[in-house]
Amino acid sequence: MRTLKESPWYLVAVLTVAYVFSFVDRSILTLMVGPIRADLQISDTEISLLHGFAFAIFYTVLGIPIARIADRSNRRNLIVAGVAFWSLATAACGLSRSFAQLFLARIGVGIGEAALSPAAYSMIGDRFPPERLGRALGVYTLGAIAGIGLALIIGGSIVGLVTRGGVTALPVIGEVRPWQLVFFVVGLPGLLVAAWLATLAEPPRRGVARRAGNAGDLWPWMRTYARAYTGHLAGFALLSILLNVIIAWGPSHLIRNFGYTPAEVGITLGGTVLVFGTAGIFSGGVLTDRWRASGRSDGALRVGVVSAVGSLPFGLIGFSTGSLPMLVASLAPLTFFATFAYGAAPAAIQFMTPPAHRAVASAVYLFFLNFVGMGIGPFLAALVTDRVFGNDQAVGLSVAIVTTASAVGAAAFLAWSLPDHRRAVAAAEGQAP
């Protein structure tokens, strides 16, 4: 009889909790833009570098070599080390006294988090058959959406409570500002998650010989199916801009233009992400599985097209009108469609890549997803606000412009790559056991 620790869904559950914590730690900064700007004397563009670029550059660059380690060694131990490292780095953000120090601490968060998803995708892929993989990865990816929602809801409450307390004197550390204290509160509990992850069993690798593949073996495969990988990587990277820009600058739009407090932002935006983001990502995973079961091997990419097309009108209308009722009404469908493909995208990589190289291929996917979505997307929106409009209050219009252009580009790339994706899936399935 299988024990709880041997259950595939227990593995998914524990990894999902870790994913939740990762997004809480990376997203909490968006609720503290005002006090951080005031204390460090920086602009929206510099905030975007802290939120996105500082995190994304090492998260993406180190993702591929870390994934090669995951393809060759114990993935559980790699994840445990990563969770502990990023939790300490998040707490270190609370020690920052300048833009440069906070930038370096955010780099540390990115380095630690780079160890999680490539290894997690590989572990889950070895525990589930292909016909159920879309749903399993959809549940895991729910951790991202739940983490964002909880970061806004709980983080908004923490920011509100801590801010009312003023400057706090901590032993050894000394005086810390309210926003610095928040980083301690959300970062240090991650060490408990690292200890829990250490109790997981390393799953046996499915259909892989004793010698694991390497990145050099993957590149010829990717060149053979260049259109499939180009369309997938570009399409889903552009699609990821939508949610990243909304999360990065939606709170500031509500605070600057409608007088919201961080706690009110948490309830409005965080609650919407938690409910409708969860529904979107799970629905996309289920649809991916159903389309594959019906013989549509390109079902995961079709889900991406639906996501882009469905998001387009709501991002444009909600953030460009300046109407609070219109914005609030648009947030639910926008969040639903913006998250619809988050389970389908990593599943597509698993389907189109031979088993020995899935962790590295996943890291390549995450490189583009996060470098473009988190590193470039929020930066572009901030640049439009600072350099085109020159007005902090125009942040909503900047979000509308960037999300609309991204949705159009994502739909075009994904639709263009459908035929080659089907060929890649057929060839990869021929190498699976």
Write a structural description.
The protein is mainly alpha-helical and 433 residues long. It has one domain: Growth Hormone, Chain: A, CATH 1.20.1250. The protein has helices at 8-27, 33-40, 44-61, 63-72, 75-93, 99-113, 117-127, 130-165, 178-187, 190-197, 215-224, 226-258, 262-293, 299-320, 324-338, 344-352, 358-389, 395-416, 418-431; strands at 168-170, 174-176. It has a two-stranded antiparallel sheet with strand order 1-2.
- Rg over CA atoms, rounded to whole Å, is 21 Å
Number of domains: 1
The CATH architecture term is Up-down Bundle
CATH class: Mainly Alpha
What is the helix content? over 70%
Cα-to-Cα separation, first versus last residue: 25 Å
CATH topology (level 3) name: Growth Hormone, Chain: A
Mean pLDDT: 87
Question: What's the β-strand tally?
Answer: 2
Major sheet, described briefly?
A: 2 strands, antiparallel
Strand order of the largest sheet: 1-2
| Structural class based on helices, strands and sheet pairing | mainly alpha
CATH superfamily: MFS general substrate transporter like domains
Strand content: under 5%
**Unreliable residue stretches:** 209-213
Number of helices: 19
State the order of secondary-structure elements, H for helix, E for strand: HHHHHHHHEEHHHHHHHHHHH
Shape: globular
